[in-house]
Design goal:
Blueprint (H helix, E strand, L loop, with lengths): L2 H16 L10 H9 L26 E9 L2 E9 L5 E11 L2 H18 L6 E4 L2 H4 L1
């Protein structure tokens, strides 16, 4: 089979796929040109950029508790970490919480973190979590 036949079969296969394939991308200019040359239309997507959030240092001599919980397909887990003013980890823990939702996972992680810190005599001066539902 000649190179031209192989090339034509590849291009035909790509065209056949393009009838059911609509790439969603904000790809580079060269990627867009490549797809356009093969008559494959791109569907523009709405690009949302996140915000970098940096861990805030607690006051000198203080400890901070950070907790988080999540759920995927109603299987939830969570964890927490206690750090000092230099970011050194004092205590950390993670656990599966069984079946539930994200809000309950976040609550369980927060509760467990506070309870275990109390049992170990750690005085927590501040706490952070990312669940606006719980914060409110």
């Amino acid at each position: 089979m000649s190179w031209i036949c192989v090339k034509n079969q590849v291009i035909q296969g790509i065209h056949d796929l393009s009838t059911s394939f609509n790439p969603k991308s904000h790809g580079s200019f060269l990627n867009q040109l490549s797809l356009n040359s093969l008559n494959i239309n791109q569907i523009p997507i709405d690009v949302r950029y996140g915000t970098w959030i940096k861990w805030q240092v607690p006051a000198f001599g203080s400890l901070k508790l950070n907790t988080d919980g999540s759920s995927i397909n109603n299987v939830c887990a969570g964890g927490w970490v206690v750090r000092d003013q230099s970011g050194e980890i004092i205590l950390a823990f993670s656990s599966s919480f069984g079946t539930s939702n994200s809000a309950e996972a976040a609550l369980k992680a927060m509760h467990l973190g506070l309870r275990l810190c109390s049992e170990r005599g750690l005085s927590i001066s501040s706490m952070e979590l990312d669940s606006l539902f719980i914060v409110n």
